[in-house]
Amino acid sequence: MTALIVDTTDGITLVGGAPFAARTLEMALRRAPVLVAADGGADRALSAGRVPQAVIGDFDSISVAARETIPADRQFPIAEQETTDFDKALRSTRSPFVLALGFVGARVDHGLAVFSTLARHPERTCLVIGGQDVVFLCPPRLRLNLEPGDRFSLFPLGPVTGRSTGLRWPIDGLDFAPHGIIGTSNEVSAPEVTLDLDADRMLAILPRLRLDRVLSALLPQWRPPRAGRAR
After folding, report:
1. Where, residue-wise, is CATH 3.40.50.10240 in the chain?
2. 1-48 pLDDT, tens per residue?
3. From CA 97, how far away is CA 10, in angstroms rounded?
4. For residues 143 and 119, is the Cβ–Cβ distance under 8 A?
């Protein structure tokens, strides 16, 4: 079992090495104030004017300048090469939820590895934030308050079936699989969407503006910050 490096009752903002805007980082930190970097994400955090509370990874992409800037007691190298830095960071932390940015968009293979990690850790509530999207692994039962017309994409990471309400194209009776039926480009048709799934293998991809509503659905006790929506 991996030792816990960060154990907090607050949300964690986990940053990777792919580009993201400084305003996106500030938006995430208003919701998840504990900043953790995965390897080269430390450089991204520093360039945005933030020093991470912990850096976790195999340290093959963090710069010498970042290692010299960040206190040594905040650096936690994990040498093994069998898992990604995102996986290392996720399994080495404990928190109510994680907002992950800087992990999708720059390289497709890195993004696929991130989504595979979500499937391996269904016990973690982790939302991956992209330029336009928020992506998360659906729990078996999900109820979301959204706006009719919102994009609502589903992508299976393995065989999964289920039922839905509030979608323009219901998923009832469909056998989803990565090599078969997928559910991208669906659309919200009612103010409430419900999903009942038979496995933790379905990614949901929604507009980033709905981040707070997703958090409220996944974490009933969570309340959005007063600063406004996730732009």
Report:
1. 6-131
2. 568 999 999 999 999 999 999 999 999 999 999 999 999 999 999 999
3. 8
4. no
Which of 189, 203, 200, 26 is closest to 115 using CA atoms? 203
Helices 22-31, 211-218: axis angle to 10 degrees equals 30
| Contact indicator for 119, 33 with CB cutoff of 8 Å | no
Residue 64, CB-side half-sphere exposure with 13 Å CA sphere:
0
Residue 100: pLDDT band with limits 50, 70, 90: very high
CATH no. of 6-131? 3.40.50.10240
d(CA 52, CA 80) in angstroms, rounded, equals 22
Of 84, 59, 61, the closest CA to residue 74 belongs to: 59
Name the band, by pLDDT with cuts 50, 70 and 90, for residue 229: low
Read off the pTM.
0.95
